[in-house]
Write a structure and sequence with these properties.
The complex is a heterodimer of chains A (270) and B (314).
Chain A: H1 8-31, H2 50-56, H3 59-90, H4 98-110, H5 113-127, H6 133-158, H7 161-169, H8 174-203, H9 206-211, H10 218-225, H11 232-257
Helix pairs in contact in A: 2-11, 3-6, 3-8, 3-10, 4-6, 6-8, 7-8, 8-11, 10-11
Chain B: H1 25-54, E1 57-59, E2 66-70, H2 73-80, H3 82-116, H4 119-134, H5 137-148, H6 153-160, H7 164-171, H8 185-209, H9 213-221, H10 226-255, H11 259-262, H12 270-278, H13 284-307
Helix pairs in contact in B: 2-3, 3-8, 3-10, 4-8, 5-8, 8-10, 9-10, 10-13, 12-13
Classes of the chains: A mainly alpha (270), B mainly alpha (314).
């Protein structure tokens, strides 16, 4: 490491690695404009904008999109409440079983989605529930808690307790301390965690296939389209839409935590 | 799995406690913990335990009805029925190879970002690595249908390079090959590696960022050649990162059922087995039994990874 110059081979390997990650995404965009709708001929024989019109005219697509938005919103709200509560409890206190709790919070994303999915499905069947919006939300909220938790707990650990003590010493009631000291401090962490949770939920397909019953979220709709032989570019148009809807919250959330954490979501969970 | 998750607050440092109900820290702690623990403990952990119980239920061979008699037969059949063993071996092998390939591809990228970029450029690289992770799993899998298709990008590129013969040769390989890339294990392998790669790059990069630069200088000052420094100083310190990344790539490959369905050879994977057994086949006990396989393997793997220090690199 004597010099900052990187060897030629290392540089090429790094650039190739990143190219490998991005070329498929660029192809998705390219194929949304192809004039050939039955095969994946490369290069596309011609370019057209008509698939955007076709896709936006699909009622089932809009219905699926609307369901996904509702699911992601409710799941995010639940995850925000529960994740912030655990974070508040875990940030500074020490008690027995703390490690078990952090394991429990991480488990829904550490175990394969299919396990979470089928476990919830077996409970749904046992309880005699009808799969639908509520059961999808339950599944999503479960694995979204951890993203909120990671963001909030990291922020809480950097908040000096003396600030809260000062507020109380100056005569603030607990609610005032919460409202005027704690909440402003946590606001961007909550927002960042919430945005990540929203993106996670909006994109989830594996757990959802188990908990959705006959309902179609956008990823499930997309999954169905993958096997349709006609109008293939419609899938690409919706794919671009999904990418935008998930990417925007992520970028926003990264901006929000900039200068606070090196990276959110990858926050160290103790 | 039956962790004692209910807290028994034993207060060692009363002054460091939850800020809000300052004078009643135990009460505050309980109020904060009860709702999330009810959700995760009852809804989620309860479901997992329920799943375990399901794998013990008997199923009537003729009617397909799930009975209430408890039996170990279903679990046993995982290891005795050759078709089930095949599924498990196939999935675990794929997970191992994918993990290995991800580590090999990820390392130079992580190394480059950690040691040869700084400031805004580093932020840009990290963003470039993270973005695909968030660009919808399904969309990324779908992209490979376009790439691997018979008339798709790879065929076009190999034809342009006059290498079509090489592609045909590869497809003629016994296990890896198949009628086309999109219906071969090779294709499936590529998709798995692609989809999980960022999960491997990020923890390795994080581990490398934490290697103290002074350590590298010290090694050089003591006369180590760069290659020696790399092998004896940097590589050992990167192990926790690789271990953390491999938890993701391994566990995600084990449980995936969409990729083997969209690309690849006809043999079933664990995820597909779980999916079809609970769905069309209506054999929930067998599906439950199969879903325990990743739980057990991931559990063992996590224990090993913990020893390698993986959790410090997460």
């Amino acid at each position: 490491m004597r010099s900052e110059r990187s060897s030629w081979g290392l540089r090429v390997a790094a650039y190739l690695g990143v190219a490998f990650l991005h070329i498929p995404l660029l192809l998705i965009i390219l194929y949304a404009f192809t004039s050939e709708d039955r095969t994946y001929t490369f290069p596309p024989p011609g370019l057209t904008l008509k698939w955007f019109g076709v896709a936006f005219a699909r009622q089932d697509m809009w219905a699926a999109l609307w369901l996904s938005v509702r699911v992601a919103t409710v799941a995010t709200l639940i995850a925000l409440a529960l994740g912030a509560m655990v974070a508040a409890a875990m940030a500074r206190a020490r008690f027995r079983g703390k490690d078990s709790i952090s394991l429990l919070i991480t488990l829904p994303i550490a175990l394969p989605g299919i396990v979470t999915g089928i476990a919830l499905l077996s409970s749904i069947k046992r309880a005699g529930l009808e799969p639908g919006l509520a059961t999808i939300v339950i599944g999503h909220a479960t694995f979204c808690i951890v993203t909120v938790y990671n963001n909030v707990v990291a922020r809480l650990r950097r908040l000096s307790p003396s600030q809260l003590e000062a507020s109380q010493d100056l005569g603030a009631r607990p609610f005032q301390t919460f409202r005027y000291v704690l909440l402003p401090h946590l606001a961007t962490a909550l927002l960042a965690g919430g945005l990540l949770a929203f993106a996670l939920s909006f994109d989830e397909v594996i757990v959802t296939t188990f908990t959705a019953g006959a309902e179609q979220t956008l990823p499930i709709w997309l999954f169905g389209e993958l096997f349709k032989p006609r109008q293939r570019p419609v899938t690409n148009v919706v794919a671009i839409l999904v990418m935008l809807v998930t990417l925007l919250p992520i970028l926003l959330s990264q901006r929000l935590t900039q200068g606070h954490e090196e990276m959110d979501g990858a926050g160290k969970s103790t | 799995m039956a962790a004692p998750f209910l807290p028994k607050p034993s207060l060692q440092k009363p002054a460091a406690h939850g800020p809000l109900l300052y004078r009643r820290p135990v009460l505050a702690l309980l109020l904060l913990l009860v709702p999330p623990l009810l959700w995760l403990g009852v809804l989620y952990l309860g479901s997992l335990l329920g799943l375990l119980v399901y794998s013990l239920y008997s199923i009537d061979d003729f009617t397909g009805q799930v009975g209430n008699v408890l039996t170990l037969d279903t679990l046993k059949s995982l290891f005795t029925a050759p078709s089930n063993v095949d599924v498990i071996v196939r999935t675990v092998l794929m997970a191992l190879i994918v993990t290995l390939a991800c580590a090999v591809i990820a390392f130079p990228v992580a190394y480059f970002v950690a040691f040869h970029t700084r400031g805004p450029r580093k932020a840009l690289w990290v963003l470039l690595i993270t973005l695909p992770l968030w660009a919808s799993y399904l969309v990324r899998v779908y992209a490979w249908r376009l790439i691997l298709a018979q008339e798709g990008v790879i065929s076009w590129v190999t034809a342009k390079l006059h290498l079509s013969w090489l592609l045909d040769e590869v497809l003629r390989l016994p296990v890896l090959g198949g009628p086309s890339l999109s219906s071969s294990y090779l294709g499936m392998f590529l998709v798995f590696v692609y989809v999980w790669l960022p999960f491997m790059i990020l923890p390795i990069q994080a581990a490398l960022e934490r290697v103290p630069r002074s350590l590298i200088q010290a090694s050089a000052d003591l006369g180590a050649r760069p290659a020696q420094t790399f092998r004896r100083v940097i590589l050992p310190l990167a192990v926790p990162g690789v271990a953390a990344g491999s938890v993701f790539t391994f566990s995600l490959t084990l449980g995936d059922y969409i990729i083997p369905g969209v690309v690849g050879a006809p043999g079933f994977f664990i995820g597909q087995m779980v999916y079809t057994q609970q769905g069309t086949a209506g054999n929930l006990p067998l599906a439950a039994a199969f879903s325990l396989v990743p739980i057990v393997i991931v559990g063992v793997y996590l224990a090993l990874a913990r020893k390698a220090g993986a959790f410090d690199a997460l």
